[in-house]
Design brief:
- The structure is a homotrimer of 321-residue chains.
- Chain A has 321 residues and is an alpha/beta fold.
- Chain A folds into 2 domains: 164 residues, Aspartate/ornithine carbamoyltransferase (Rossmann fold, 3-Layer(aba) Sandwich); 152 residues, Aspartate/ornithine carbamoyltransferase (Rossmann fold, 3-Layer(aba) Sandwich), CATH 3.40.50.
- Chain A is built from 13 helices and 9 strands.
- In chain A, helix 7 links the parallel strand 5 and strand 6.
- In chain A, helix 2 crosses helix 13 and helix 3 packs across helix 13.
- Chain A starts with a helix and ends with a helix.
């Protein structure tokens, strides 16, 4: 059902809600399109007229300066008109009222909604209710999905490793509460990644992790052995104060990525992090700034990947309208 | 005096502060101009260069996500440069300081001020003090006036009923505290509407209501009989907790618009609401989403009407400068 | 060191952090370039394509509606894409984290950072760490520097007095805590101003004031005698409640600029204030609105001066990248 909602009847991407249910061809098309946009953002005039005269509404029900910035820049560089709304988590965000908000904005002839919301499924809810000419882009919904982050991670891996089939990728940290991890795992599987490992304490793993098509490790040193890609996750402060975790120091001792531990991976392994990182908690500062780190490249590629996704879904919505 | 302030010496609209004092010719010109802009907002590239290189400053002394969005979109679609300022209700908003704020922004060569303010008369105050090349647009001032809402309502009525002369229009709810109602009544009168009814409990009617040129009803069923247009007003929550009203349930029982009651009006009557509506308090959900409701069309037409008003007053200000 | 950081190896302005260390030729070039932009902001279409496709990030760690507005307008009129971020004074603004914020935004291919920060030296810190193609513009850092304000003041003086060599300029008020005064004094000295006077109570003067190349007065009447330019400073409310000052009334009696006192200066003296002014505390209302006041002109010229500085540093950064 999810894939139907994202796709037109002839299988083109119209909304971008979740990587789950998308084909390898669709993901590869996003990556290839993003490749062409990296040249736009490199050049002196970083602007193409693809979305000129279109209106992109950024609806941030959950505040995020960094994600908002990347979507505003992507939309500006596509020449869109932009409406950014920080919507307080009030009664207005629930059920019927959320629908009224959606329909009102849609009546203003918004062409694309970029939605970040603390509740899982919000972007799907929007996509179910918008008219045929309008696209919905999920910029993170609850603990469910953060598919643009997942795609920019794939783009970064492909740039450095060219292919996925022979790779071993390790994702380290709070898998349980991470929408980023969920999107990464789906994308890696769709792209036929050789092996996907998750490394976490039992308390930070979801139930039935193995059903996600990954190998589970509880020991970091063991899990990092000979991997090509290390993806660290941000540890949410609120987890640290809960019963789920021992102290920060103990977490770092067991699951923090140190220069020493990076040596367990392949010599040309890359280190990734969706940001913002807690230096000294999940990752040592020297690793974050080290020569194997591609963390800032992820940010740069994130603009091109978002431009690619926006232009792809906008062109389908225009055809449908 | 009010009309003088809004008009140039040869009777052209230069500020848009209040519908009171404007001629039928001016209102009709706004409606006709808006008609041409509906085609702009319908097409794929929703942008015209009318305000290119002009600066529109949106000054929101009273927060309103929805109204701000409509004005930002209207200005963007006219290609204006936009400066949106949320100005806290502090000492800075009173008397001398308000004037200093105005003069400072004017010194930045702002071409148009869109002002929303909790105090009645604020937009007039601004218009009195700006230079000859600058326009002021009232986006709602206290309980006084919300003239762009009034005009988009007229546009919606004309779209559905073609003329005003033979119409019977009923406005239902809190007339006393509603700047929207005040603007609607003025506009309907200027456009020679056949009959204008207001339907409200005595506690929610202003003194000397009849002097506004309307017929007063206290009974909803009686008032709705054979009308062509039903305009519901939003009931402010703060009125409900005051001594002015019985309970929400009792209000809905007496003044809530139900599907049953809609049948009292003419069969082709339209149902309007300025939004955001309180479903189940002043209007039944099924009526709001029903086939006679034109509530979302009001939002769409609101962009075209605001584009029309902005372009009309900007062209006069340019001539004057 | 400061000047090295602002200049390219062949002595061109690449960042604009502080007037200290800049040559007369560089300041004069800014003033001449701003002169050409005043015609842009005067004409009907106030826009030039100089920064089209460039991204300007306004980082406001310290809120300022007015300064933010002038930078947004300057960047819009240069056709830049603009990202405005209000960054809360949290842990994120300190040390390592500030650097992470910088590097993340830089990875989004921002071309210019406009930074306002409550800590002295923040803009320098940014300039030290950005890549070769990125410019940094100081929009006010702590009590250190506010160089765009300094330059717009010089522009205003030159417009009215044509030259600096034969002028006597008095700066009145809280010199000690004013980044504006610091920037003004440096600029006046670089431009070989005949005489620069500071007039303040001892508690509001920095140590070793004379080393700044100014003459110190504690008596306002004496200090104003025969000056060509009177620059009043804003008195921060927090100083008034501290032990540094007597009452507001007493301050006004001793250091407030009255119409009577303006007569002590030359007949064609101009009165300036960086705004926002406290009417009746440091300046009498009638003086602020009087015929010798050029306070609103300062605001207007401020846009042209900021456009000039932005276009100058952007062109150097483009060459360097």
């Amino acid at each position: 059902m999810l894939n139907n909602l994202q796709l037109t009847t002839d299988g083109k991407l119209k909304h971008f809600l979740s990587i789950e249910g998308l084909s390898k061809a669709i993901l590869t098309n996003i990556l290839d399109t993003a490749e062409s946009f990296t040249s736009v953002t490199d050049r002196s005039i970083k602007k193409v007229p693809i979305l000129r005269g279109k209106t992109v509404a950024n609806l941030f029900f959950e505040p995020s300066t960094r994600t908002r910035a990347t979507f505003e820049l992507a939309a500006q560089r596509l020449s869109a008109d932009i409406l950014t709304l920080d919507i307080k988590t009030s009664s207005a965000t629930k059920g019927e009222s959320l629908l009224d908000t959606l329909h009102n904005l849609e009546a203003m002839q918004v062409d694309m909604f970029v939605i970040r919301h603390q509740d899982s499924g919000s972007a799907h809810f929007f996509a179910q209710h918008v008219g045929p000419g309008v696209s919905v882009l999920n910029a993170g919904d609850g603990q469910h999905s953060h598919p643009t982050q997942g795609m920019l991670d794939m783009f970064t891996i492909r740039r450095h490793k060219q292919q996925f089939e022979n790779l071993c990728v390790a994702i380290v940290g709070d898998i349980k509460h991470s929408r980023v991890a969920r999107s990464q795992i789906h994308a890696l599987n769709v792209l036929n990644t050789g092996q996907v490992r998750v490394i976490a304490p039992r308390t930070l793993l979801p139930e039935k992790t193995e059903s996600l098509g990954v190998q589970v490790y509880h020991d970091l040193d063991e899990g990092l052995k000979d991997v090509d890609v290390i993806i660290m996750l941000r540890l949410q402060k609120e987890r640290m104060t809960s019963a789920l975790l021992p102290s920060e120091q103990e977490y770092f001792r067991q699951y923090g990525l140190t220069a020493e531990r990076v040596k367990l991976a392949k010599p040309d392994a890359i280190v990734m992090h969706p940001g913002p990182a807690n230096r000294g908690i999940e990752i040592e500062s020297s690793v974050m700034d080290g020569k194997q780190s591609v963390i800032l490249q992820q940010v740069t590629f994130g603009i091109a990947v978002r431009m690619a996704i926006m232009s792809i879904i906008a062109s389908q919505a225009t055809l449908a309208s």
